[in-house]
From TrEMBL, chain A:
Residues 1-26 are annotated as: Disordered. This is Molybdopterin-binding protein. It comes from the Bacteria. InterPro entries: OxRdtase_Mopterin-bd_dom, OxRdtase_Mopterin-bd_sf. It holds the Pfam family Oxidored_molyb. It comes from Plantactinospora mayteni. SUPFAM superfamilies: Oxidoreductase molybdopterin-binding domain. Residues 35-179 form the Oxidoreductase molybdopterin-binding domain. PANTHER family: OXIDOREDUCTASE MOLYBDOPTERIN-BINDING DOMAIN-CONTAINING PROTEIN, PROTEIN-METHIONINE-SULFOXIDE REDUCTASE.
From TrEMBL, chain B:
It comes from the Bacteria. It comes from Plantactinospora mayteni. This is Uncharacterized protein. InterPro entries: DUF6510. It holds the Pfam family DUF6510.
């Protein structure tokens, strides 16, 4: 396998009817990372939504998880071809976080501790389709999987579900993120197999 | 290497992109691990072989060994390669001397 070949080579199983095109099922949970794993003390952790006018809404760790929590069970699909079905999470819906945020923005740029970014339409963060999560399968989310908290947007390829999420900047224009500026698709719908630009 | 002439003017001050083919082929035919690069973030110059490479990812990400900022990203799609060097202010590649092939300032 060449070093530049995308595609985590895990144990492959036959595709099933619940899988988007080009995906294989894994029971493992491969760890993919573009850099060192940030270690964020919970006393320093914060989540910030910044609007197009520059106003900010901030939550500390304790403030975040005092909000109503949800426990979504969702399928996740990585652009490197693995899918994992029926994953169990706990976190706060972006509907809750965006409630009361005064914005007319169309786009969101998610940013993380460690510098990672990813972009998506703001619409895709609404209507019960996105969460900030801090627990997986009943336990704290491990750092290698994005803990203490990550974004979860399971209807898009998993690179949009930013690990170590720190905040979201809302904007009137689309600003491509880390992988979107390096050949990956701007939107990333697994069911339309939007892996790369031009797909 | 050809210079393009515009019918209504004299010589242009640039050449068309076809002339890149030779130099680029030369550059990417060499072993880049012997090259050095300067980090656009902290300014440290490092051998490419000394960068910290994260390849268990949707692409290859090479980071500065001093400040850990991204110096190089390479994504291979089924039909192309995307090379992003915005994190490097230069990449210096050892090359054999070929005086006859070296472009340089010419007396006007």
């Amino acid at each position: 396998m060449g070093i530049v070949s995308p595609g985590f080579q895990g144990r492959r199983r036959p595709s099933g009817p619940n899988l988007p095109p080009g995906q294989y099922l894994t029971e493992d949970w491969p760890v993919l990372s573009a850099g060192p794993t940030p270690r964020v003390p919970l006393t320093d952790w914060e989540f910030v939504i910044t609007t197009e006018s520059g106003s900010e809404v901030r939550w500390s760790w304790d403030e975040m998880w005092a909000l109503p929590n949800e426990t979504p069970t969702v399928d996740i699909h990585c652009v490197t071809h693995w899918s994992k079905l029926g994953t169990n999470w706990q976190g706060v819906s972006l509907d809750t976080l965006l409630d009361g945020v005064d914005t007319t923005a169309d786009y969101a740029l998610v940013h993380s501790y460690g510098g990672y970014t990813t972009n998506l339409p703001l619409h895709d963060l609404r209507d019960g389709r996105a969460w900030v999560v801090h627990r997986y399968d009943g336990a704290d989310l491990p750092a290698e999987h994005g803990g203490p908290a990550r974004l979860l947007v399971p209807h898009l390829y998993f690179w949009k579900s930013a690990k170590w999420v720190r905040g979201i900047r809302l904007g009137l224009t689309d600003e491509p993120g880390f992988w979107e500026t390096a050949g990956y698709h701007d939107y990333g719908d697994p069911w339309r197999e939007q892996r790369y630009q031009g797909d | 290497m050809t210079e393009q002439l515009r019918p209504d003017q004299g010589r242009m001050d640039y050449l068309d992109g076809n002339v890149l083919a030779g130099p680029m082929r030369d550059v990417f035919a060499v072993d880049l691990t012997t090259a050095t690069g300067r980090c656009a973030s902290c300014g440290q110059t490092s051998p490419m072989a000394g960068l910290r490479v994260y390849s268990n990812a949707p692409g290859v990400v090479a980071r500065c060994p001093a400040c850990e900022e991204v110096m190089l990203r390479l994504v291979r799609t089924p039909t192309s390669a995307w090379l992003d060097l915005r994190g490097s202010t230069f990449v210096q590649i050892p090359m054999p001397a070929e005086p006859a092939m070296m472009p340089g300032p010419t007396a006007m």
